Amino acid sequence: MPQLITILILVFSAWWLYRRFVSDARKLAEKSRRAEKERQTGAIGTLVKDPATGEYRLKREDE
């Protein structure tokens, strides 16, 4: 029984680390694509519209 619990903990940990790795890889790929697009167009940043106020602001890195 303790071996089963240990194996389950290891499997869950490996799955969690894999999902985190994939998530981080997607974020980095999107950031890279955005930076490449900004470099091609000569833009300084990406503007997004705030739905509450209707004003535009620079897109933050965590969005």
Question: Gist?
Answer:
The protein has 63 residues and is mostly helical. 63% of the residues lie in helices and 10% in strands.
Structure commentary:
It is built from one helix and two strands. The chain has about 60 residues and is mostly helical. It has one domain (about 1-55). A hairpin with a 6-residue loop joins strand 1 and strand 2.
Layout of SSEs?
Layout: H1 2-41, E1 47-49, E2 56-58
Antiparallel strand pairs: 1-2
Protein name: Membrane protein implicated in regulation of membrane protease activity
Keywords: Hydrolase, Protease
Organism: Rhizobium pisi
Enumerate the strands of the largest sheet in spatial order, edge to edge or round the barrel.
1-2
* Main β sheet profile: 2 strands, antiparallel
* Oligomer classification: single chain
The succession of helices and strands, N to C, reads: HEE
Number of helical runs? 1
Q: If you compute it from the alpha carbons, what radius of gyration comes out, rounded to the nearest whole angstrom?
A: 20 Å
What's the number of domains? 1
Question: Beta fraction of the residues?
Answer: 5-15%
Category by helix and strand content: mainly alpha
Shape: elongated
> Which regions have little confidence, pLDDT < 50, spanning 5+ residues?
none
Average pLDDT taken over every residue: 91
Number of DSSP strand runs:
2
What's the N-to-C terminus distance?
44 Å
Helix content: 55-70%
